[in-house]
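Q: I'm writing up a methods section and want to include an example of the input and output format. Could you take the sequence below and give the corresponding predicted structure tokens, formatted cleanly so I can copy it straight into the document?
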Amino acid sequence: MTQQEGPRVVRVLLSPANVWRVAFAVVAVAAVVLFARFVLADAGGLIVVVVMAWFISLAMEPAVGRLARHMRRGAAALLVMVAFLLVSAVFLYLFGSLLAEQVAVLVRELPDILTGAVAWVNERFGTNYQIADILSSLNLTPQQAAQYAQDVLGNVLGLLGTLTGAIVNLFTLLLLIFYLSADGPRLRVWLARLMPANLQRVFLTVWDVSLVKTGGYVWARLILATVNAAASTVVFLVLGMPSWLALGLWTGLVAQLVPTIGTYIAIALPVVVGLVSPRPWIGLVALGWGVLYQQVENLTLEPRISGRSVDIHPGVAFAGVILGASLFGAVGALLAVPVVAMLLSLIDTFVARQDLVQAVPAGQAAAADHHSAAPPPGGPPPPEPDGPPSRAADGPPAPGSGEPAPPERGRRPPG
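A: Here is the clean output for your methods example:
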């Protein structure tokens, strides 16, 4: 028997140099965390502006890239921005006051619209729902709902009233958009030279994929939103729907936040407004228009406009919009889908897809395991058992061993 060893004693010696290195690392990590918290807390607005400028420059890239073949890139970017600003200015000059008035009326009458919708459901389906019970189940009284509507309207008007801040933010946004669009290629090369060779390839790939896939997606969504908003506005105007301009823009913009099912989500508000109006058939026609336009968009417009962009599952896009809205409000909801498109395009680029292995049923799997346990022909013999050798393994018994010999092949044993 060997004598058991006693417990081993391990001594850890810390030199002053190691202590100072660990302390410096801890202080550095704490400083980085505090700096990141300071930047996100105090410079969060600027970060949002930079991200918005980045995605708007990506959306401008198809037009800027085509114009840059015939003129300088800076002039091409400036021309695209001026054209967009002129179109926006003409739209606001023609419909700005009407749009603000309709939005204010729609927000103010939202509690009455909900009450009328509940009354219409009770009349058509024989139910007895009460708006007070629904609001109480949501911990919301009619007075609170009206107050929330007034608060939303007041916030909108207050946001429009801060003219100085809006001008400063708009100027910053336009400057960043122009810089990122005009000097995008030089910025790409300058940033790549700051990295080692292996990281340069990754960075350039990420930049190019974001430029092609995400830029194409944002550009396609803007075009589809413009077409949807214009068509819906004309249809609602012809139908005589209340707040036709605001509801048309709502339908066009919200429909493109969530692909495929976004139109059905956006058309819900015009349908409710039409059903509670003096002519309820307007709501039914609006519902039919939403279904018809979605089919036309899926079969004709969507494949041609967004053929090269990344494809996003509706569930993923909707979850991204909800997450972005909960984190950053309306701006987060607008930027959620482009961010998801960029992430999916990077996953498609860097993550290799493997072949799908078909599942094997349990019976076939057991048979396969049994066959795999048998030795292959010509392979090594199976290991010998621990017990006495068998007759089949050792061959016929030796003469004089007292055991009968097995009969020869082809001859019958004597009776």
